[in-house]
Amino acid sequence: MRIKSALAAAAVLTLAAACGGGGGESSSSPGAPVKLDFLSLAWQKESVAANKQIVDEWNKANPGIQVTYVQGSWDNVNDQLVTQFAGGTAPDVIHNDSPALAGFASDGYLLDLGAKLPAELKSDIPQAAWDTVTFDGGKGGQGVYGVPFLQESQVIIANKKLLDDSGVRVPAAGDPWTWDEFSAAAKKMTKGGTFGVAWPMKSPVNKTLNLALNFGGTFFQTAGGKTTVKVGPEEREVLQRIHDQLYKDKSADPAALGQGTADPLPAFYKGKFALLPAGVYLRQQVAEQAPDGFEWVTLPAPKGTSAQQGAVSQTLSIAQESEHPDEAMKFISFFLNGANQAKLAKGDWLLPTSQTAAADPAMTTKENGWDVATASAKDLVVAPFLKVNGFDEWKSKVATPALQEYFADKITLDQAATKLVEDGNKVLERYQR
Fold first, then answer.
1. Burial class for 266, CB neighbours closer than 10 Å (0-12, 13-18, 19+)
2. How many CA atoms lie within 13 A of 206 on its CB side?
3. Exposure string (b/e) for 69-94, b if CB count within 10 Å is 16 or more?
4. Of 358, 196, 192, nearest in space to 277 by CA
5. DSSP state of 411
6. Residue 16 pLDDT greater than 80, yes or no
7. Is the dihedral angle over the CA atoms 126, 36, 109, 142 positive or is it negative?
8. Cys-Cys link to 217, which of 122, 143, 234, 428 (CB 3.0-4.6 A)?
9. Is-contact 22 91, C-beta < 8 A?
10. pLDDT, position 163
């Protein structure tokens, strides 16, 4: 959902200036409206438009609480926030994602929202989503440090003609393929220069870790307050099955292996392969870019011993230093009501956490696979890596290169597991001293 990279300090100063005095400006005179800064990371055209429309609606309806929309970027938001928190210039309302909240919460930069959540908002969002934003705070104890509102699941985007011509059972929401059925279907569709499936694995970690929950694979375990990496039979299932498609069944297109998620799309449109496992957001590019006459459908991800997938949430938080936390919560409650979450999800091609939003006709239409995508939200549970201190470094320095080597068939699964565990524990150890 997000991309982290450190950019020039100039960008930090630009956003800091845009956010003005930070923490919401104090009213300069009695009767003046409360002013709140809202940092948004929306970037797609439809999503930015939806964000701004909701802010405008709020400002028109609430002259006493005026919100300033501040455009941020996923590329550098956490570096910017570190600077702003330290300098006392953080925006009141902060858009981010759940993995970033743990560190900011433990440092005391985010407000614990638990006591401020309106009952209607709290009950409209399932507990599994709230679990993604519940962390140990700086003063100890569990707190809720954001409101989760958008999530991503994995689905399969399929070439409808190749799927229909194969004669395999077409899975539906609530009745997905098992991994065995998925493998058999991919094998059956592999013929005449066409592969059954493509696995772009330039960035393999989130995809494989989230799908590993199909078999109960968590990759991390905590005992005695210490977290270590775990690669047992459950964690190996999905890794082995993808590897088998590549090298045993030869049903996976090897040309896609080193590509990013969207890179195989031109070959997909040309019928080079039939099935593309991907995040639900990729449907947007297919809908907008597929050539005339190309028919595609969205299928649910396969299931193992369960259909569970790991979830990461986009969130709205309140800065601890905000001078107007109650007003900020009123704005968040409006911004994330059911109708508005449906607009936001539609704009980002992601899944709303709101049960009211999920029932919106826009979220349940068969057009562009929204019915299958929205139904997949019920299988999302808190991602096991979400609360692992040091995960980002483990992911970039250990897991990404190890899994890339494994999927390129340069090392065995045993060797990959050794790297993940031994090198990984050295990384985690530094975060637990």
1. exposed
2. 19
3. bbebebbbbbbbbbbbbeeebbbbbb
4. 196
5. S
6. no
7. negative
8. 234
9. yes
10. 98
Which residue carries 């050295």 as its tokens? 426
Estimate the share of the chain in helix, then strand, then coil, as percent rounded to the nearest 5. Answer: 45, 20, 35
* Residue 125, SS3 per DSSP: coil
Residue 43: which of 314, 412, 261 has the closest Cα? 314
- Least trusted range by pLDDT, from 137-141, 401-405, 406-410: 137-141
Give the number of other Cβ atoms within 10 Å of residue 336's Cβ: 24
pLDDT at 102 over 70: yes
**d(C-alpha 185, C-alpha 169), whole Å:** 8
Task: Give the whole-angstrom CA distance, residue 314 versus residue 41.
Answer: 10
Q: Which of these, 272, 249, 257, 254, lies nearest to 184 by C-alpha position? A: 249
The model's confidence at residue 140, banded by pLDDT at 50, 70 and 90, is low
What pLDDT digit, counting tens, does each position of 172-197 carry? Answer: 999 999 999 999 999 999 999 999 99
Q: Between the CA of residue 357 and those of 20, 131, 172, 183, 193, what are the distances in Å?
A: 33, 19, 21, 34, 43
Sign of the four-CA dihedral 140, 320, 10, 53: positive
Q: Residue 19's pLDDT is what?
A: 46
The neighbour count for residue 181, using CB atoms within 10 Å, is: 15
> Counting Cβ atoms within 10 Å, is residue 271 exposed (0-12), middle (13-18) or buried (19+)?
middle
Q: Which residues touch 345 (CB under 8 Å, ≥6 apart)? A: 150, 351, 352, 357, 363
Amino acid at residue number 218: T
326, with CB counted inside 10 A (0-12, 13-18, 19+), is: exposed
Read off the pLDDT of each residue in 419-426 and give the average, rounded to a whole number: 98
Reading the block at residue 270, the tokens are 């040309």
Instruction: Give yes or no for a contact between 201 and 407, defined as CB atoms under 8 angstroms apart.
Output: yes
Cβ–Cβ under 8 Å, residues 168 and 184: yes
* 309 in Cβ contact with 214 (< 8 Å): yes
Let me know: does 158 contact 275? Beta carbons within 8 Å. yes
Task: Tell me, yes or no, if the pTM score tops 0.70.
Answer: yes
- pLDDT level of residue 132 (50, 70, 90 thresholds): very high
Q: How far is C-alpha 95 from the geometric centre of its chain's CA atoms?
A: 13
The per-residue pLDDT of the chain, averaged, comes to 92
Backbone angles phi, psi at 396, to 5 degrees: -75, -40
Average confidence (pLDDT) over 188-213: 96
Supply 195's token pair: 């592969």
Q: What's residue 3's pLDDT?
A: 36
